[in-house]
Specification:
about 160 residues, alpha+beta, Cytidine Deaminase, domain 2, 5 strands
Amino acid sequence: MGSPSKIGYERNFPVPQYRVALKEVGCAYYSSATIGHVDAAAEVFCQLAEDADREYIMALYLNARNEPIGCEVLAIGGLFGTTCLAGEVFKGALCANAASLILGHNHPSGDVTPSAADREMTHQAVAAGRALGLSVLDHIIVARSGNYHSMRDVDPMFEERMSA
């Protein structure tokens, strides 16, 4: 048996200590106290991407009563779309102590039909959310015209209900 080790004698390698915090950078408005229907979430996403000439991936964070507690633009794309890793999707939600979230993104073309990449990203986000204990309630695609498409309406992967 070896002798017990002592901690802290030679401190040659620093480990930075961080404090993770959210910083308010703006505000979006919606028409109801809770997000019980896709229309209210689509309102927020349309505002966030109002002047976007590129694709934005966004998240709306909700508390346990489906009241919005924050929203965020997660990624801004290029000419051929954008991608967003699960860690980027859930970082803000975890910092905000969200109970659930709704994903959104815009299609600058005006066509709100989900692509295969949109469906794949949604499936990955729903699976990652389940692993983290955060419900992904919907993924909404919006256009500048105000038209939108709720992926919840057509995809059985969504188990959680949006109603408050």
